[in-house]
Amino acid sequence: MAGKTAQSINPATGEMVETFSPHTPSDVDAALGLATGRFASWRTTLLDERARLMHRAGEVLDAQVSRFAQTITREMGKPITQAEAEVKKCAAACRHYAEHAGSYLQDEIIPTEASHSFVRHLPMGPVLAVMPWNFPFWQVFRFAAPALMAGNVGLLKHASNVWRCALDIEDVFREAGFPEGCFQTLLVSSEDVEGVIRDSRVKAVTLTGSGPAGRSVAAAAGDSLKPSLLELGGSDAFIVMPSADLDKAVATAVKARTQNSGQSCIAAKRFFVHADVYDAFTSRFVAAFDALKVGDPTQRDTDIGPLATQKIRDELASQVSESESAGAVRLTAGRNLPESGAWFAPAILAEAPAGSPAAHEELFGPVASLWKVDSLADAIAHANDSAFGLGSVLFSNDDADIDQAVQQLDAGATFVNSMVASDPRLPFGGVKASGYGRELAADGMRAFMNRKTVSIA
Ligand code: NAP
Which of 118, 171, 273, 419 gets the highest tally of CB atoms within 10 A of its CB? Predict the structure, then answer.
């Protein structure tokens, strides 16, 4: 194992906040042993008791929103009000799974000639979650709440820039009273993940992150014949048709593109606007972008903070400048931003040509790419001309448009007249290079379960 020291760096200032010593191979071995031992008793713990503890985890989160939100903002720069909302959403997910696990786990009765035939959902064991920094609490809870309610136990390998969040999340489950070993954080680097996946005590792996990370995790899981679930990147289309409510479309477009300072997998990233409303939409869209408050993420009126790391900022800057060199036109005004820290001015790029990064890559920051289209068919063809297929949005009040978009957009979700959002009640996931499998709702809970067929003659 590589054993690199990890650092939390405040991206608003560039200052180092904390350093962490990684776990040693024998720490990891002990954690896997503990997880295996705990699974033996946790799988038979009554559902009511699991639910009591999961409700308690929600209470622990609700009681310490401010503490956890400050950790999030300090480590990855999210505006504080959004960090608080993220912690509250995690508490709601805990409550959702505490309340609904019983119905999600019910036997599925399938009548046959046998006297009883049904599918029963049984847990698999320790599940490894490899998670990203962008929603450092939410991504973990959307895995952990269903996994623990299902009777599995969780192992977290969090992104190396948010290890205080990772340790805080472990605290939540400990403070809630979950038995030791139900949920453990492994402080290991990405090079150490393959060894953990291949360990026979780990039964499945889920990853939320980039395509390269997904490929390497899926390869190790496939080679070890273990199930994997991948939630990867996206470059979601946002289509605006003439019948749309333009005020609502513009307000939603701004939020969908700039929430979390633009670093969201399900952010709308490519905007296709019908020629009949293009000018009206664009002038309002640009004005709204220029009015966004960019600055100190600890201030409650900040719309956009820094990007999470200098590396992410530099990568976005090079994608934007390459797109401009290829012919994309920047419509938004320039800004003076602090010199230290990972700052990037929000921008709208019009008519980025085919082949440029804005047209084909994921831009992970507050940059919208905009094109004028002649028809819905044109918009859908452009939307589908992407390696990704996570979410998609249509703004239209025409039923025929809605049917066509739902049927033809190649994406894991289509939201009509609202932005794509994750919701514990709805399955979540992508197609194409955005990954496979579904999290949340009943699908998320059953992702890592043995759906055992039972037939009693
Ligand atoms: P990332 O670099 O892939 O990192 C994600 C996690 O994977 C981190 O814990 C990272 O650890 C680990 N990792 C990286 N390379 C790995 C490898 N070769 N083998 C095993 N683990 C590896 O992604 P990111 O930059 O943090 O996150 C941004 C990406 O995630 C974007 O593409 C975004 O769209 C996507 N995302 C998708 C969803 C979704 O639900 N579909 C949600 C959020 C984000 P280290 O930090 O130690 O490298």
Answer: 273
Is the separation of the CB atoms in 384 and 332 below 8 Å? no
Contact 262, 415 (CB under 8 A): no
User: What are the distances in angstroms from CA 264 to CA 30, 349, 374?
Assistant: 35, 18, 28
Compute, in angstroms, the gap from residue 283 CA to the centroid of ligand 1.
Answer: 35
444 CA → ligand 1 middle, Å: 19
**Are 240 and 344 in a shared domain?**
yes
CB of 134 shorter than 6 A to ligand 1: yes
Q: CA 91, CA 10: separation in Å to the nearest integer?
A: 25
What residues make up the domain containing 198?
6-231+432-456
Quick check: helix, strand or coil at residue 140?
A: helix
Q: Is 209 in the pocket of ligand 1 (CB under 6 A)?
A: yes
Chain centroid to Cα 156, Å, comes to 15
Query: What span, in angstroms and rounded, lies between the C-alpha atoms of 164 and 138?
Result: 15
Q: Are residue 178 and residue 318 in the same domain, yes or no?
A: no
57 found inside a domain: yes
User: Is the CB–ligand 1 distance for residue 216 below 6 Å?
Assistant: yes
Task: Provide, for the chain, the percentages of residues in helix, strand and coil under a 3-state DSSP scheme, each rounded to the nearest 5.
Answer: 45, 20, 35
Residue with CA at minimum distance from ligand 1 atom 27: 209
Please count the other Cβ atoms lying within 10 Å of the Cβ belonging to residue 427. 17
The Cα–Cα gap between 225 and 300 comes to: 48
Mean pLDDT along residues 220-246: 98
Residue 157, ligand 1, Cβ within 6 A? yes
- Could you tell me which of 424, 420, 419 has the C-alpha nearest to residue 439? 424
pLDDT at site 5: 83
Judge if 69 and 95 occupy the same domain: yes
pLDDT at 215 over 60: yes
Cβ atoms of residues 281 and 246 within 8 Å: yes
Question: Stretch 323-346: mean pLDDT, rounded?
Answer: 96
231 is catalytic: yes
Look at the chain and report how many structural domains it folds into: 2
72 assigned to some structural domain? yes
Indicate whether 211 and 253 sit together in one domain.
no
Nearest-CA neighbor of 390 among 288, 266, 291? 266
Active-site residue, from 231, 361, 362, 439: 231
Q: Are residues 384 and 444 located together in one domain of the fold?
A: no
Ligand 1 atom with the smallest distance to the CA of 230 is 41
Residue 427 maps to a domain: no
In tens, the pLDDT along 60-111 reads 999 999 999 999 999 999 999 999 999 999 999 999 999 999 999 999 999 9
